Amino acid sequence: MTRRARPGSGGEEPLPLDPAAPTVAGAGPGGDPGQGPGAAPVAGAPLAARMRPRSLDEFVGQRDILAQGGVLRSLVEGDRLRSIVLWGPAGTGKTTLARLLAGRTRAEFLQLSAVTAGVADVRRAVEEGRARLRATGRRTVLFIDEVHRFSRTQQDALLPGVEDGSVVFAGATTENPYSSVTSPLLSRSLLFRLERLSDEEVGSILDRAIADARGLAGRARVGAGARAELASRAEGDARVALNALEAAADRAAARGSAEVTEADAADALRSRFARYDRAGDRHYDAASAFIKSMRGSDPDAAVAWLARMIHGGEDPRFIARRMLIFASEDIGMADPSALSVAAATSRAVEEVGLPEARISLAHAAIYLALAPKSNAVIRAIDRAAEDVERRGGGEVPVHLRSGAGPGAGALGHGAGYKYPHDYPGGVVEQEHGPEGVERRRYWWPEEDLAERRARGSAARPAGAGDHDENGT
Are 92 and 6 spatial neighbours (Cβ–Cβ below 8 Å)? Predict the structure, then answer.
């Protein structure tokens, strides 16, 4: 029998389902089995599962989308079900919001994991929802965690049920839904963006877990330093913070103490990795932040993002390629040596490899961040390319054509060409542009390019850290 929620006090008997049908899997943020929105967590559930908010009043964070009179809050409190996509980082409340939606509206709550469910599971859930609606008048919230992992075929299997209202789709994703959720499904859903929790919000969640009977019930005391360590290093993920709190409290208890120290918190978070996904949004976001930090002449931020990418397993060759591009695109003729530095770094990455190549990558990142900036090179080539698209490429003038090919002399190729080295200063007036198109100027260096070159390196931007080498 499919595991299903019993929200509220509806009193309806469960629909008879196919006993051979596989269980609809439902693991929430703390790893708890798929229970109804109002159900108590199973015995021994992780702290993150036990502390799942039971109402919007207990929910912490996402003030913008849960404001009084806002669309999402109105849906939850007004019993008006709509299909939704919840997009945001892990541990920000996506699963909890879907459960609260079902609980407040007395809908049945089914949960599928995109990691394990197939097309047959989706179709079965839709048919169950259709049958339930006909038999009892109750609707079904079908929550799909990590919906970005569903193939197009799997997502398309949802459409009939969403279209006719048999199920209310609630999808959670950490990836950009505009690239990971199909257009037909996204167009039938309301999209809500959840933001990373602040350290203060994570701290509030920790405080409740320490005092609440569902949590540590006051059995542990957490000092200010330990609390700050847990809140800040969780990186806005409530699940990580709560799991680390529980581990830290267990560590303290193991030595016979109720006092959770900063060392306990640090040990509980020892294996905490920076959020990074080489194939997802974080890959592109981190690379974008890295480039923009160098463009903004901020070597500290550039090195910080570089370390984050390396720590997350990014291919160092990708990082080196981005710096090669940056050297010409954002520095160009303001410091022509920047390209040589980037090229040497690319070779070093190939020959040395990690972990030592991190030093060469940092060397280049700092050099590029401090170098004077100019985007005149990319502006020149882009303007020329635009002209080729609009006006054609023109012909090569006869005096510029190669005279080395068979019959070139008879055709007059190269005739009339003025060899610059035969003239004073190595410069001579003659036409070098394409024939048949209006001559245009593409190279427009910044008026102060010479001054930028002379300056040699960019001044530190306003707001850059003035700490000493120990960060103090």
Answer: no
